[in-house]
Amino acid sequence: WDLIWFGFGSVIGAGIFVLTGQEAHDHAGPAIVLSYVASGVSAMLSVFCYTEFAVEIPVAGGSFAYLRIELGDFAAFITAGNILLESVVGTAAVARAWTSYFTALLNRPHESLRIHTNLTSGYNLLDPIAVAVLAIAATIAMISTGKTSYFNWIASAINTVVIIFVLIAGFAHAKTSNLKPFMPYGAKGVFQAAAIVYFAYGGFDNIATMAEETKNPAKDIPIGLLGSMSIITVIYCLMALSLAMMQKYTEIDRGAAYSLAFQSVGMKWAKYLVALGALKGMTTVLLVGALGQARYTTRIARAHMMPPWLA
Length: 311
Description:
It is a multi-pass membrane protein. The chain has one domain: Up-down Bundle (Amino acid/polyamine transporter I), CATH 1.20.1740.10. The protein is 72% helix and 1% strand. It has 12 helices and 2 strands, in the order αααααββααααααα. The longest helix has 33 residues, at 73-105. A hairpin with an 8-residue loop joins strand 1 and strand 2. Strands 1-2 form a two-stranded antiparallel ribbon.
C-alpha cells in the first residue's frame, strides 16, 4: 500500500492540470483522451521492464543499478549523469510551478511572488518560495522514509478527494456537443499530444528505487508499480474527458485549463480547489522525488562514480 501511494505521490502532480489543457487546445482536441491512453500504454511498457528488473535485482538505484549489471560501467556512468540532471531540472520545474499555483490560490497576479531582477529575460525572475519548498521537502525525506510515507499518504488522500470532485463537477456540467469534432487534428495530433502528456506519467521509477526499503521486493515492487500506474491511467483519461466535455477545445485555456473551465460554467470558487489539488500533488512529487534522488545517489556513490561518503 505504501508503494501504491508513493506511485500516486510521485506521478500525479502539475502535469495533468497543466498539460491537458495545453495539448487539447493545440494538438489533440477532445481526442486528448486517446493521447492519455497511448501515453499510459507506453508508460505501462516501461513499468513492465522496471518490474522485471526489480524482481531480478532488488537493490536501490533503479535504472542505474540495472544498466550497470546489463551494460557495464560506462553506460551506467552516463545514466547516472542523466538521472541526477533529470532530478535537479525536474524538481526545479515543479517547484516553480508550485509558486505559480500558490499565487493562484492567493488570488494574486501571476509573477507577484517572484523577485524581479535586471538579468536577461527568462532568467530574471528569482523564486525564493520554490527554494524553500524544495528545502522543506528534502528535510522531511531526510528525517525518515516511514514519516515521508505517512505524510505522502495524507497528502495523496487529500489530492484524491480533489480529483474526485473535479470528475464529479466536470461530468455534471458536461456537454456531448463539445466532443465534436472528436479528432480535429487527426491521428498525428493525437500522437503529438501523447508525446507531451507522457511527462504527466513521469516519476514511477522512484518506486523501483525503493527495493531496499520494502520487506519483499520481488512481490511488493510489481504490485506497487502496476497497481498505481493502472489506477493513474484511468484517472488521467477520466480527467481529460471531463475537461473536453466541459469546454469546447478551442476555448480551453492553455495555462489554467481546469480553473477557467469551472469558471466558465459558473463555479468560480472551484478554481481555488483545483489550485489546492495541484499544490498538494506537486508537494508529494517533490517529496517522493527527494526520496528517489537519495536512493539513486546512494547507489551511484556505492559504485564509486561519486565520492563514496555520499552513500
